[in-house]
Design goal:
Layout lengths: L5 H8 L9 H10 L1 E5 L4 E3 L7 E7 L2 E6 L5 E7 L4 E2 L1 H6 L6 E4 L3 E7 H10 L1 H31 L15
Antiparallel strand pairs: 1-8, 2-7, 3-6, 3-8, 4-5, 4-7
Helix pairs in contact: 4-5
Length: 169
C-alpha cells in the first residue's frame, strides 16, 4: 500500500482525481493505493489487454499510443505527474484502449477495481465525488480530442483524409 505521508496527501489533493474529498475519505482512498515503479521503456499497460486498475502518475512521463488500422503506432498524448489513466476500463469494463510506455523512470499509484468497489461500500458520497472527478477529466479529454480533430480537418493539405468538414449549422 502507499505510504500516507503528508507529502503524498498534498500531492494527491492537487490532482483532479481527488478533488472535493474530506480528510477521512482521502485517507481511506490513500490506504488502498499501491505504489508501482517502472523503468524507462517499460510497457505500463498495453492496448487490448484486460484492465482491472487505474493509475495516478506521481513522477516521470508516459507516452500514450494506439495502433492504427495500417499497423503503425500513433502517439496520441503524454502524461506526467498528477495525470491519471486506466479509468476507462473501470467504468466501461472493456479492454485497454491504448498503450502506455514509460518515457523515463515512473512512479504511479494503482487503484484496483476491487478497491474502488470497497471504497463505494465504505463511503458512497466520496465514491460519487471520485466518479464525478473521473467524468470531468474524461469530458476535458473529449473536448481536447474534438479540438484536435477540428484542427486536422481544417488544416490545408492535412494528413487526415477520412474526416470531412461540413458547413456550420
Amino acid at each position: 500500500m502507499a505510504a500516507g505521508s503528508p507529502e503524498l496527501k498534498a500531492f494527491l489533493i492537487e490532482t483532479p482525481f481527488f478533488g472535493g474529498l474530506s480528510d477521512a475519505s482521502l485517507a481511506l482512498l490513500i490506504s488502498m493505493l499501491v505504489e508501482r515503479h517502472f523503468e524507462a521503456g517499460a510497457t505500463v499497460i498495453a492496448e487490448g489487454e484486460p484492465g482491472r486498475s487505474m493509475y495516478i502518475v506521481r513522477s516521470g512521463n508516459l507516452l500514450v499510443s494506439k495502433l492504427g488500422h495500417s499497423g503503425c503506432v500513433i502517439d496520441i498524448n503524454r502524461l506526467g505527474p498528477g495525470d491519471f489513466f486506466g479509468e476507462m476500463t473501470l467504468i466501461e469494463v472493456q479492454n485497454r484502449s491504448a498503450t502506455l510506455i514509460a518515457e523515463s523512470s515512473v512512479v504511479v499509484y494503482e487503484l484496483t477495481a476491487r478497491n474502488l468497489y470497497t471504497y463505494y461500500k465504505a463511503d458512497i458520497y466520496a465514491y460519487a465525488m471520485v466518479m464525478q472527478n473521473i467524468n470531468r477529466e474524461l469530458c476535458r479529454r473529449l473536448r481536447r480530442a474534438d479540438a484536435r480533430m477540428a484542427e486536422l480537418v481544417n488544416a490545408p493539405h492535412g494528413p487526415v483524409t477520412q474526416f470531412r468538414a461540413r458547413p456550420k449549422e
